[in-house]
């Protein structure tokens, strides 16, 4: 057991009762976690920053969660709820990350937790030998050496026990945060605006707890004066709504489309787009939602209040939300996302490019879009924008992978040649 300083805050009570060395994180035994949690309570901001950075690296490593992750959750939740401690808003964002990984994987629809739970049970029920036999048959069915090597690599990477352990640890972390919601709900009334926003952000990812969360969130919409908090709460309400509550929630959200603060209008539009037909019953209303999302897909204002979704960058979230309007506004949505894409660079381009390609070509497929001359005008424009993005974007294998998912050529010179653009 790890010995803990008895002078530490009550939020860390029981820390020494956990056998951290028997738990693991990204780098092995988790016996360093207690000291990091203690450091998060330090009055020294730099010490807190270093501890937070270390926790994002070990119990949340590039989005993965581990057996030690769930064990850390109760302490982080109690620290966030203790007004005597510093850094509480950062603790809340860490809790959300521990629950779901990177939030862009769940946007714009929200956490599909029923499917997540079913996936874990499906893997739990698998016979590893039977799965291995299926892989062997798949390898044998390859039509050429290149395809066979790719399939052999996939087969050799298969490890049923490791896969189940990873999936179980991630769902356990999610459920650990879910269990803290009753203790976190009062923080929607906290004196610290950043804590109120962080709490609303955490609640967004737990549709199974919507019956607890929505009755506390809806009054916040009427009385909240801080734009960042109000915007975060609006998006959360939209993510928690379902078919039964969608119409009622949409009625509560529509007035915010004419709010004076742009970030509040954007948040209302984001929430209404997620509620779908229930939220967009009138043509003029749909056009208003479209206009706000188009504005959000452009270059963000440097002085805009930060809303934590999508790492605080509304462009990627707006692009994904515009894809929800594709049936209703196909040309306008694609034009807006293409405009937004042209202004991005580096990793910020990834979600915008994904949304644009989905709007232009539907779901990804390896066959490609066909000859460039046969594309529609908006499709050709998108391809040219992709080919014109800078080397800061094209240096990423992630970006190449996105384009290849839709059958577009890479590297950049190949796409420029496909689009009829000159070499650079």
Brief description of this entry?
Helix content is 60%, strand content 2%.
Topology at a glance:
Layout: E1 24-25, E2 28-29, H1 33-39, H2 45-58, E3 60-61, E4 64-65, H3 67-81, H4 88-100, H5 113-125, H6 128-140, H7 145-157, H8 160-179, H9 181-184, H10 193-203, H11 210-223, H12 227-240, H13 246-253, H14 262-275, H15 283-296, H16 314-324, H17 330-342, H18 349-361, H19 377-388, H20 391-394, H21 397-405, H22 412-418
Antiparallel strand pairs: 1-2, 3-4
Keywords:
two-stranded antiparallel sheet; single chain; mainly alpha; 424 residues
What would you note in describing this structure?
- Helix content is 60%, strand content 2%.
- With 424 residues, it is mostly helical.
- The strands form 2 sheets. A two-stranded antiparallel ribbon has the order 1-2. The chain has a two-stranded antiparallel ribbon with strand order 3-4.
- Strand 1 and strand 2 form a beta hairpin.
- Helix 14 crosses helix 15, helix 17 runs antiparallel to helix 18 and helix 19 runs antiparallel to helix 22.
- It starts with 23 loop residues before the first strand and ends in a 6-residue tail after the last helix.
- The mean pLDDT is 93.
> How many β-strand runs?
4
* Low-confidence region ranges: none
- The oligomeric state of the chains shown is single chain
Strand order of the largest sheet: 1-2
Computed structural class = mainly alpha
- Report the order of strands and helices: EEHHEEHHHHHHHHHHHHHHHHHHHH
Tally of individual helices? 22
Shape: globular
Name the average pLDDT: 93
Q: What is the strand content?
A: under 5%
Q: Determine the fraction of residues in helical runs and give it as a percent range.
A: 55-70%
Please outline the major beta sheet. Answer: 2 strands, antiparallel
The radius of gyration over CA amounts to 23 Å
